[in-house]
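Appendix B. Chain record.
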Amino acid sequence: MPSNAKVFIKYGPYEAAGVVDYRDSRLRGLQAILTKNGHSVKLVKIEDPNTVELSVNGETVFTCDIKDLDYGSDGELDPLCIKAKDAVKKAY
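Structure tokens predicted for this chain:
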């Protein structure tokens, strides 16, 4: 995939401190690592709770549980962010 791919990060609500809501703090590392690799990123809210899906050219290339992503990281040390970056790189 060219380094200038348009990546949609689709994410659902999750529970924190007893409140279920949409939060993007766990997505910051994912956004950072993809942006650093030259991709443009757009966040899209979906109904599926606890879900993160990365979509490139209409194809879902990576999924995970949002609570498994590191909170507020830069993505460099988060193994899921690295897997997501590799999945986007292999997309076509």
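Further analysis of this model is presented in Appendix C.
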